[in-house]
Amino acid sequence: MPNFLCRWPNCDCSIVSARTEVEAIEHLDEVANAEGCPITQLSQLQLHFTLADDGRLALEGMGEATEDEIFEFCYPELDHPLGNDLASAVNRERDRVHAVDQAFLKAPETELGQTAKRQLDMPTTLVDRIVSTAAKQRLKSFKPRGNPS
User: pTM of the prediction?
Assistant: First the structure.
């Protein structure tokens, strides 16, 4: 399954496995709404974990190719800073806020979905699927009034 890298507006990044970019955006909703955020498919992923004393996993590091790909996509200002320039490169990256690309955003198909999206800030594809599933369930259980024949 492909792995997708998302660069959040606050300068953080996340990696998620998903069949498609749309599915990746839906999975990332556990963190925040990733619609309009820069997302790319990673060509490879290698992560190394260590078992901490408290019984949790801690990220120990990542493969060189994975780290290079993350920095090229998410943090191009940090690509090759030298010496004292590193601190200013980090500050430039933190200041380089990615605004959500509003042109990428699609409104939900229904008025109910649009209201839910405003209230919950969920990806449109997820909202549309939930509304569609709920509507189908409601129609299946619908009992019309009057003559049952």
Answer: 0.73
